[in-house]
Specification:
Bound molecules: nicotinamide-adenine-dinucleotide
Order of helices and strands: EHEHEHEHHEHEEHEEEHEEHEHH
Structural class: alpha/beta
CATH architecture: 3-Layer(aba) Sandwich
Largest sheet: 7 strands, parallel
Length: 319
């Protein structure tokens, strides 16, 4: 019998893709999500409607910061493993909305890990973030680097998840794997992230905001590569590990804008702005440990990945 997997944040970008891939592999998947309105709820509901077509999927609208309702899901579904992707995402939003991060990323995470402990879950895989590297100067970012200077509450909340997981693995022998995702993009992506925002604004003829006068670099990771890294983590189920999941290439933001322009066949009007508080200038993942221990091997270059994103974007948004 295949494992039963609980995926939190299943209506989200990464949760949706992971859940669909697990369903195709005949896992039994329970998805939970509070379907909050941080971005367009229609996109979240459309993703869930696709997942509901699979007979091995069931969905519950639950907030992980509510212990009672989350506990009921664990008791009824009795998962073998849990993938915690539910979180308040976004670096800039955390500057003005601190309590959203406290509730979902800290209280919610503690509820999940505590239930994993009491319900004897075989393994917890959880989303961390490249933002834990803060303003580290040494690049690429390696999991052996010091990460004690987060530049935002979002980054601090993700680092706290790693520390809480470490303590639970040691105290209770709970198997935990933290995954530091690097700027994930692709079809069904997040409208609050740069790539989607750029596409929206270029299409509607509005100018796009580009920070630090365009002098920014990001390691952009295609969604299918992220899903394969998460699935490998579920399979390996290490005792207590943290991995980088990135593409291992740092791309100039202006090159990304050029690809979007090319695939939309429309020029961007660019509004150059200074660096934003909480933001980092460059991200770049060192992935040797992930390659060795997870057989992780990102396959998608940005030119190919952005074309796939824009193909989907056109079908979904421009009817
Ligand atoms: N996308 C990226 O580039 C990226 C990078 C680093 C880390 N991450 C992390 O990966 C995870 C998934 O990210 P995503 O891009 O799919 O984001 P997303 O916002 O699309 O998905 C998160 C989902 O969690 C749900 N959610 C939020 N708070 C909740 C709560 N209290 N209870 C139940 N559901 C709740 C939201 O409604 C949303 O559907 C998050 O933990 C995020 O912080 C993402």
């Amino acid at each position: 019998m295949k494992d039963k997997i609980l995926v939190t944040g299943a209506a989200g970008f990464i949760g949706f893709h992971l859940a669909e891939s697990l369903l195709k592999d005949n896992f039994n998947v329970c998805g939970i999500d509070n379907i909050n309105d941080y971005y367009d709820v229609k996109l979240k509901n459309d993703r869930i409607d696709i997942l509901k077509k699979y007979s091995n999927f069931n969905f519950n609208q639950v907030d992980i910061s509510n212990f009672e309702s989350t506990s009921n899901i664990f008791k009824n579904f009795q998962p073998d493993k849990v993938v915690n992707l539910a979180a308040q995402a976004g670096v800039r939003y955390s500057i003005d909305h601190p309590f959203a991060y406290l509730n979902s990323n800290i209280v919610g995470f503690l509820n999940i890990i505590e239930l994993c402990k009491t319900q004897n879950i075989k393994g917890l895989i959880y989303a961390s973030s490249s933002s834990v590297y803060g303003g580290n100067k040494e690049i690429p970012f390696s999991v052996s680097d010091r990460v004690n200077k987060p530049l935002s509450l979002y980054a601090a909340s993700k680092r706290s998840n790693e520390l809480i997981a470490y303590s639970y693995s040691n105290l209770f022998n709970l198997h935990t794997t933290g995954l530091r995702f690097f700027t994930v993009y692709g079809p069904w992506g997040r409208p609050d992230m740069a790539m989607y925002k750029f596409a929206n604004k270029i299409c509607s003829g509005e100018s796009i905001d580009v920070y630090n006068n365009g002098d920014m670099k990001r390691d952009f990771t295609y969604i299918d590569d992220i899903v394969s890294g998460i699935k490998s983590s579920i399979d390996k189920n290490y005792q207590c590990e943290v991995f980088n999941l990135g593409n291992n290439k740092s791309e100039n933001l202006m090159d990304i804008v050029k690809y979007i322009e090319q695939y939309l066949d429309k020029k961007a009007d660019i509004n150059f702005l200074p660096m934003q508080p909480g933001d980092v200038k460059e991200s770049w993942a060192e992935i040797k440990k992930s390659m060795k221990m997870l057989n992780y091997k990102p396959k998608t270059d940005v030119d190919v990945g952005i074309e796939k994103f824009i193909d989907w974007y056109k079908k979904y948004n421009i009817k």
